[in-house]
C-alpha cells in the first residue's frame, strides 16, 4: 500500500503543513517539527534538496566556492548540505521558523542565518547581492505565494541563477498552475529566462492514496532553473 507504510505521525505532520493554516500557527508548527524534521523527510525519501542542488550545480558556471548563494526557507539545512557537497561554500539562509534556524545553525554550513518570513518580510539583502537563490519545498499550496518571485529576483545578480521547486500532486495542481503562470509572465517581461523545468516522478513518498500521482506510492515534483536577465556577455 502507498504511503500507508509511513507512520501515521509522519503522515499527520506532513498533512498539517499543507493544510494552509494561519501564518503564526504554521510557524509554531515548524518550530515544533524542527527536531523531528530530518528523520521525517528521510522516511518520506524526500529528494528535492538533492535534485535541486544537482540541477543548480549543472547550470552554474565554475568556480562555485566564492559564489554567494541564498537558501530561502532553508529549514534544517538539507539544501545547504547538498550544495556544500557540490563545492558551494558561501551559503546564507533565511527561514520563518526560529526552531528550524536553530537546527540549520548546528550544521555549521551557513555563513549567515536570519529569521525572515517569505511573503511578509523583504529578504534581508541588498539588490543584486546573490549569484544564486534557491527556494526548495516552500512554494506550495498553503505555504508561500508565487507573488514572492519579484523579491527573489531583486536580490539576485544579473546573470545569476534561481532554483525553485514545487510538487505536482493533485492537491497542489492549482498552486502549480498559478506558479507557472507567474514564472512565464516574468519570462515574457524579460526578467529572466528558463534554463530547466525538470519533472521528477519520484519526488517523495505520498502520504495518502489520493496524492500518489501514478498510483506508485510517490508524488511527483518539478525543479525549475531560471537565469536573471540581462545575462552578462562572455568576454571575447
Automatic annotation (TrEMBL):
Q: Which InterPro entries match?
A: Methyltransf_25, SAM-dependent_MTases_sf
**What superkingdom does the record give?**
Eukaryota
Q: Where is the Methyltransferase domain?
A: 69-160
Protein name per its UniProtKB record: MET27 protein
Q: Which organism is it from?
A: Thryothorus ludovicianus
